[in-house]
Design brief:
Elements lengths: L1 H21 L4 H7 L1 E6 L2 E2 L3 E3 L5 E2 L1 H12 L3 E6 L2 H9 L5 E2 L7 H6 E3 L4 E10 L15 E5 L3 H7 L6 E5 L3 H8 L5 E5 H10 L4 E13 L2 E3 L3 H16 L2 H9 L2
Parallel strand pairs: 1-5, 1-6, 9-10, 9-11
Antiparallel strand pairs: 2-3, 3-4, 6-13, 7-13, 8-11, 8-12
């Protein structure tokens, strides 16, 4: 009896392991499902955000839809907070991430990336009436706001003599903290800064020159070579045809 129970338990464990592996993002499974599931943190306009009708929209969303269409699939976007998005990918909550993810050496140790489809840069934003801070170097001794787990956070922590780096769950919170005077400057993606400042031109301004240029791509779990190859092929088509360039013009990024 004990042996039967042991064998049954082992069978359940093995079945669960096999199921979890098969339920991943293998290209065959995705094609059978007919849907490519993208994880995205939809709090980052103009790249990904939720519109007044509750729909996820933006540059990356347009890219994801076109990638899926060219692969003969439908796209599904799963809104996931940035601080948990990589863990959610690991746990197979979706197949890939498309969320303005910069390609860094550290991230490449844990994940594969698609062909880069855009680049980005960082910038310093301060209050409209700020006089002292004129560049990143002037953040020495200051409180700086950033979104947690981003290249902005890493860059802020690398500023010589920075007073304090305050990290928040979304990129909007540092702007709010800046408006209330709880931080003295923020570091953020340049296109995001431009979009936000266009909405509140009387409250914020950009200072200094852009820095930390990075390539960005779709994040794929390690070892899923067929999926990466299929995504890379369609992204290359989109780049070569000028589709990506036209989309960048549309979003002014």
């Amino acid at each position: 009896m004990r042996r039967r129970r042991l064998l049954f338990c082992l069978a359940v464990v093995l079945t669960s392991l096999l199921f979890s592996q098969a339920w991943g993002a293998s290209l065959g499974d995705i094609k059978a499902r007919g849907v490519l599931r993208f994880g995205t943190d939809a709090t980052y306009p103009p790249f990904e955000s939720v519109d007044k009708d509750g729909k996820i929209v933006g540059f990356d969303i347009d890219v994801g839809n076109e990638v899926a269409r060219r692969m003969g699939l439908k796209a599904e976007f799963i809104n996931t907070a940035w601080d948990g998005i990589f863990m959610a990918l690991n746990n197979q909550k979706f197949d890939v991430i498309i969320s303005s993810v910069s390609i860094t050496e550290k991230r490449q140790e844990a994940y594969d990336f698609s062909t880069p489809y855009k680049d980005s840069y960082q910038i310093v934003v301060v209050k409209k009436d700020e006089k002292e801070i004129k560049s990143k170097a002037d953040l020495k001794g200051k409180k700086v706001g950033v979104q947690i787990g981003t290249t902005s956070e890493k860059e802020a922590k690398g500023v010589a003599g920075v007073g304090e780096v305050k990290s928040y769950n979304t990129f909007v919170e540092p702007f709010m903290e800046l408006a209330f005077g709880r931080v003295e400057g923020i570091i953020v993606n340049g296109a995001v800064a431009n979009t936000f400042i266009s909405r509140y031109p009387d409250k914020f301004k950009i200072v200094g020159e852009p820095f930390l240029y990075n390539k960005q791509g779709i994040v794929i779990r390690k070892g899923e070579k067929e999926l990466k190859g299929a995504i890379d092929r369609v992204l290359k088509e989109m780049i070569d045809e000028g589709w990506i360039a036209r989309l960048r013009e549309k979003y002014m990024i």
